[in-house]
Design goal:
Elements (H helix, E strand, L loop, with lengths): L10 E5 L2 E7 L6 H13 L6 E5 L4 E8 L10 H42 L8
Amino acid sequence: MPDIDRTADIKVTAAQGTVTAEIPLAGHASEHWLELCRMLASQRGLERRVKAEDREDRAWVIISLPAASQDPLDQHPESALDNVSALISEANGMEQRSQSGAVQTEAAIRDWWARQQRQRPARRSS
């Protein structure tokens, strides 16, 4: 599960009244993790501002913020970035629970198969 890579540089670009911050994550993200990020962003009404991508070098979370806003509903950049950090942590927790459930299910399947193999009928000798 990727987490913010605090040793890498963040990418910040400004264009057309928007500032985009690309937050580097340590390692790559699974498709499931990326889907969890999309779902969480959507639940928070951030699907137009936040996206996650797995690129050749690593995974990134990208957030686009207005360059300057007089709208009191717009979050301060620090608050928005804190919310993105919380979203990443929540996606990691959900991914971990999912993997834990998969491990438990896999173990149950393997136990069942081992019981099936022990219950094989004995071969008759001719």
